[in-house]
Each structure stands twice: as structure tokens, then as C-alpha cells.
Amino acid sequence: MMLDGKIAVITGAGPGLGWTLAVLMAREGADVAVAARSADTLEAIAGAVRAEGREALPVPTDVSDPDQVRRLADTVVERFGRVDVLVNAAFPGSHRRNVLDMDDAYLEQWRKAVEIAAYGTLLACRHFAPHMVAAGAGSIVNLTSMSSRAGYAGRSDYAAGKAAVHLLSHCLADELGPSGVRVNCVAPGWIASDVLDDWMRARAEAEHTTFEAIRARDTAAMALRRIATEEDVARAVVFLASDQAAATTGATLDVNGGQLFT
Q1: Would you state the pLDDT for residue 258?
Q2: Does 132 fall in a domain?
């Protein structure tokens, strides 16, 4: 198993990718701590991890709060004695608004979104990385996005937050590498989901065409002619987290079906 005996932490563990990643890590041999704001979601994910025969630790956490993130790190290390893998995936939903259409309330929402992505990732790394440095080994994998390299109208909060995480990861890779700690990114493109389907249906209605036509047009722009799944993305994370990527740091692994080459 790729993560046999590892202790993994996932921040921003939601009902979609976070759930899939936690279960896959458990199947690959890891005990998993999951952190997010929703206690109910965390308990459900923890139950799925335990169903795979591994230990789970749900810790409700606001990753933009320094005290809560410090408590998260202390709780994980107290329970498991160490941390081998940290995956940062926290980011709030975006409502797709152009900059010139933002009122004061949305500008504050924009600030908070970027803070959760960039500052939240920084805080998690700040409080977990010292335990990895002390052990002389560890892997941090940050979830960025295709949008961290190519911005789109209405998604400036998402693009700015993910781009910040992208370059933060480069800085951390340089800082932590001498201590044996690796820092990498996985950058998904579109991920197959009900949310993506709803967006395609909305576009189809706006363009007076069909969902099938929009989906066919979108996938035709991808080299693999298919949209990545949550499991596709989770497997990329597991690879970078594992010892199979022992000589890889400061890298970004794109999982977008060939929608964007970098």
C-alpha cells in the first residue's frame, strides 16, 4: 500500500473530493485526520475511513483561525504521535461575480475566500511542518487549480487564492527541502460532479442549446476527451504524498484531462 502506516491530515475535507481522498488514503494504509468547519460532514467522512479498517480523527476547524489550526495540529500529534502527510484543500464556494459588479459585501466575501485558501494553507503548514522537520521527513500536498495559471471572468477570488497557494508551495519546498520535507501541488481542472453538470445546464439554457451539446463541446477541448473524476484527483494526491515521489518537490501535477498544458 502506498501510504502504509502513515498519518495523514486533510484540511478542507468536504463531502466531495475530501471524502474521496480520505477513503482512498485509508485504503492505501493511512490513518486519517480530517478538518473542516462542518462537524456533521467530518463525522460522516470519519465513519467511511473507519469502514476501511483505519483510524479516523475528525476535528472541526476554521483554517483561517490561527488558534484553531494550532489546536488541530496539537490534537493530531497528541492522538497519533506524529504527522507524515498534510493535504490542504480548503476553499469556499465561489458565486462567479465580475470585479466591477462587486459591492462592499461581496468585496469582503472575496477577501475571506482568498484568506481561507492562502492564509489557511499557510497556517496549516506553519503548525504541522515543524513536526515533519523534527522527524526529518514528510509530505505536504496543496490543492490548487487550473485557475491558478489561467484566470476566468467572474472567478478572481478562486484564481487569486489558488495562485497564492501555488507560489507559497514553491517557497515552502525551498525552505523545507533541506529538512527532508517535500511540498507539491495537485492542480485539478474541471471535476465531474453534480455542480459541474448544473453549470453546464445553465450555460446550455443561456446559449439555447442542450446539455449534451455543451458537454460534447467542452470535452472536445480536452486531449483525453473526458472530465477528470474525484478519484483521478485523489490518486494524484496520494502519489505525491507517498514515498514513490520521494525525489519530487516544488512540482505541480495537473489533473485536467488535457484541458490546459503547462
Answers
A1: 96
A2: yes
